[in-house]
Specification:
There is one protein chain. This protein is an alpha/beta fold. Helices cover about 35% and strands about 15% of the residues. It folds into two domains: about 230 residues, NAD(P)-binding Rossmann-like Domain (Rossmann fold, 3-Layer(aba) Sandwich); about 250 residues, Rossmann fold (3-Layer(aba) Sandwich). The strands form five sheets. Strands 11-10-9-12-13-14-17 form a seven-stranded parallel sheet, sandwiched between helices. The chain has a four-stranded parallel sheet with strand order 3-4-5-8, sandwiched between helices. Helix 10 links the parallel strand 10 and strand 11. Helix 1 packs across helix 6, helix 2 packs across helix 3 and helix 12 runs parallel beside helix 13.
Length: about 525
């Protein structure tokens, strides 16, 4: 598709084709450069002297293995868009896929207002995560972005040689959709994010033409001949709640054994002290726990250090980026707690926070583990200029707004992976979000979103023990009781039956006040 677009455009505008490698020369008039858009220095070269980014990698991915394919779609999108924005580019067109609606019946009138229902496969996660990443990168910037969700692209010859597919889209119509989108993002009278479904013409398409007419899209090919020649099968309609519900539900089990990833960090360290008397623990980290303890590797001055526990508890070295190691650690376990995190490092943040989350939930499904406790940072105001920084009574399930913040962005994509798996397999994933941790006896000034280390551990206990959750994926904010009125912990109390015990009153009262 990219070559067809370049051929259609290069006579009039300057086109630069980018991929990991090229096996053929580019179309006449187009430039081609090879390299990895996950690398900032190469991405800078890609966007130099350009005014528009056309990002088709999510729907025309390079030949990579499973985990690298997800990383290319996520980290590649993040890096490419970040460098483009920093270079002053304000026009973006991103490719995604109508396969994300594949599970919906043909008789449903799907349009751009419908939320996709991606399956937990690499083929679905690539375009879906890239689409979300692109949106977040542009959310807080004066930019114009269009997301084009394409059908399954075929040529006339390919359509004539295969059984009819109601998601087909002719290559010529796909190229026309791209040209319409590129013309639209040049319109400086509007900004923001727009989604258009690039579908075939006529009544035979599973997803009909709707909003894309607004950008001048007029498809020509309707595949009537292939439709009429195809065998017709009728199936009984399923209740809509079954269609959007778990497709391969995993049953609950009694929880006796818990595996914890990132056990060398302070959140996990205080949590497994809390859990050790009730559960058999398998504690894992990329660094041996004893080594962390011996060199006093505290995350902060007040952060707790891990300690070695006696049998039957186990300690093992596991890299959450390694799918085989993660899966071996989950064998024989009843529940999973994921406390892994990397903050400032670009490559490691995507590998640990995003790919690591994928490895964890994929192993949960393989090992038939329903309860997975996910942890992370607040995601609603990481880009302060467009987040919810000065909202009040912010609830535990507030929509995420990670923006360009690397830590939040990578955790957000990991969260979305967990959510996709949870809804497809009927998992139970309480996602606990924190901000500031303090010891109960600390004199450090607290902010409005704080919790003691011990109360955070009790929240993880409740996340394991609570009998059921109202929905497969439940995000909630873990915050002490405070009078600020900004962050609400009501959802955590209701969802988990968790009550913070430690009071921060000594830290938010002004002891120098003499009135």
């Amino acid at each position: 598709m990219a070559r067809a677009v370049a051929k259609a455009l290069s006579a009039k505008i300057s086109v630069r084709l980018v991929d990991l490698e090229f096996t053929d020369a580019p179309p006449a008039g187009a430039e081609a450069i090879s390299g990895d858009i996950r690398l900032p220095e190469f991405a800078k070269q890609v966007v130099a002297d350009r005014d528009t980014v056309l990002h088709l990698a999510p729907v025309t991915p390079p030949n990579l293995d499973e985990l690298s394919g997800i990383e290319y779609a996520t980290r590649g999108t993040y890096v490419l868009f970040k460098e483009a924005i920093d270079a002053g580019i304000r026009q973006f067109v991103t490719g995604s896929s109508l396969d994300l609606f594949d599970g919906f019946p043909a008789q449903w009138a799907i349009d751009e207002d419908w939320k996709p229902q991606p399956r937990p496969t690499v083929e679905h996660l690539r375009p879906w995560l890239a689409e979300l990443s692109a949106y977040e990168m542009l959310r807080f910037h004066i930019a114009r972005g269009i997301c084009l969700r394409f059908g399954r692209i075929v040529t006339t010859a390919e359509a004539e040689a295969q059984p009819y597919d109601p998601l087909w889209l002719h290559l010529d119509d796909a190229v026309q959709g791209v040209k319409c989108a590129l013309s639209s993002v040049e319109n400086k009278d509007w900004r923001g994010w727009h989604i258009h479904h690039i579908t075939p013409a006529g009544k035979f398409a599973k997803i009909r033409l709707q909003n894309a007419v607004q950008i001048g899209y007029e498809p020509v090919h309707d595949f009537r001949a292939q439709f009429e020649a195809s065998p017709k099968t009728a199936s009984a309609p399923r209740p809509w709640r079954d269609v959007v519900g778990a497709q391969e539900p995993i049953p609950s089990r009694n929880i006796h054994k818990v595996v914890m990833f990132g056990a060398g960090g302070p959140v996990a360290a205080v949590a497994y002290d809390e859990l050790a008397s009730s559960f058999q623990l398998r504690l894992t980290d990329v660094i041996p726990i004893g080594e962390i303890t011996s060199y006093n590797g505290r995350q902060s001055k007040e952060a707790p250090l891990p300690r070695l526990l006696p049998p039957p508890h186990e300690f093992s070295v596991v890299d959450v980026c390694d799918a085989a190691q993660v899966d071996a650690a989950c064998e024989g376990m009843d529940s999973i707690v994921n406390c892994t995190v990397v903050r400032p490092d670009l490559e490691k943040a995507f590998r640990v926070n995003t790919i690591g989350a994928y490895n964890v939930v994929k192993s949960a499904v393989k090992r038939r583990i329903r309860r997975v406790v996910h942890t992370g940072p607040m995601l609603f105001n990481m880009d302060r200029e467009g987040g919810d920084r000065f909202e009040y009574d912010t609830p535990g399930d507030v929509p995420p707004r990670p923006g360009r913040n690397l830590y939040a962005h990578t955790k957000y994509l990991g969260q979305e992976i967990c959510k996709v798996f949870a809804y497809y397999y009927g998992l139970e994933i309480p996602a606990l979000y924190y901000c500031q941790f303090l010891n109960a006896e600390s004199t450090t000034r607290s902010i409005n979103f704080s919790v003691t280390w011990n109360d955070s551990a009790r929240a993880i206990r409740r996340a394991i023990e609570v009998p059921s959750l109202p929905s497969p994926f439940e995000p909630t904010l873990i915050n002490a009781d405070m009078p600020h009125g900004m962050i609400s912990n009501a959802h955590a109390k209701q969802l988990l039956g968790w009550l913070p015990r430690d009071d921060y009153e000594i830290r938010w009262q002004d002891r120098e006040y003499e009135g």
